[in-house]
Amino acid sequence: MRTPLSLLCIAAAALVTVGCARKGLTGDENGAYGAGDGFGGAGDVVIDANDPLLGGVGDAAGAFGGRFEDTRERITDAGLETLYFTFDSYTLPPDELYKADAAVQYLLDNPTCVMIVEGHCDERGSNEYNLSLSEQRAIGVRDYMVALGVASERIQTRAFGEEKPADPAQNEAAYAKNRRAEFVPYK
After folding, report:
1. Is residue 146 within 8 Å of residue 60, measured between CB atoms?
2. pLDDT above 70: percentage of residues in the chain
3. How far apart are CA 150 and CA 124, in angstroms?
4. 3-state SS, residue 184
């Protein structure tokens, strides 16, 4: 039987070595591929949302009870930044990880607080595809945070697909703002 510490070490090693299985589009909107572009290249952090070492997926309530937005008060001044994704990807970009790290530190510093990770997409793609992709984004961020030591029951996920754009315009700059995960803490 494995100890929790050895499971955490295995999970951390998996974060470094796992590759990303992709389907659908094969490059970004500019036709670019390679390291750090969100398509499983070197340097990308890829989370397997079904990895049992990371404690499962979805709306874990546990000891913190119910849907956080129904049972707790939202914190509006936490200062957490939005994490942005590359086109058609749920891979956590290495240059955005500091934002997830800040959310982890916030929860570690505030042990009675909980958090919802909200996943979003730009409007390109079908509604079903975008809902699935936004869910994968939220779960991937959540699992990254759990791997860094936050109890899984303290983080819930919500997937919004393209329904809540940060910028409603239809251009590359707006699309980039809409491919995101937002950290929403509650007390």
Report:
1. no
2. 65
3. 33
4. strand
In 10 A of CB 51, how many CB atoms? 18
Secondary structure of residue 128 in the 3-state scheme: helix
Count of CB atoms within 10 A of residue 90's CB? 26
**Rg of the Cα atoms in the chain:** 16
| pLDDT of 95 | 98
The answer, as to whether pTM is greater than 0.90, is: no
The domain ranges of the chain are 4-186
CA 155 to CA 150: how far, in whole Å? 8
Contacts of 133 (CB under 8 A, 6+ apart): 88, 90, 119, 121, 125, 161
pLDDT score recorded for residue 55: 40
Residue with tokens 């008060």: 73
Q: Provide the pairing of β-strand 155-159 with 180-186.
A: unpaired
Tell which residue, 65, 61, 89, 114, has the closest CA to residue 181.
Answer: 89
Domain 4-186 has CATH 3.30.1330.60: yes
Q: Helices (DSSP H) in the chain: which residue ranges?
A: 4-17, 68-71, 97-109, 127-147, 172-178
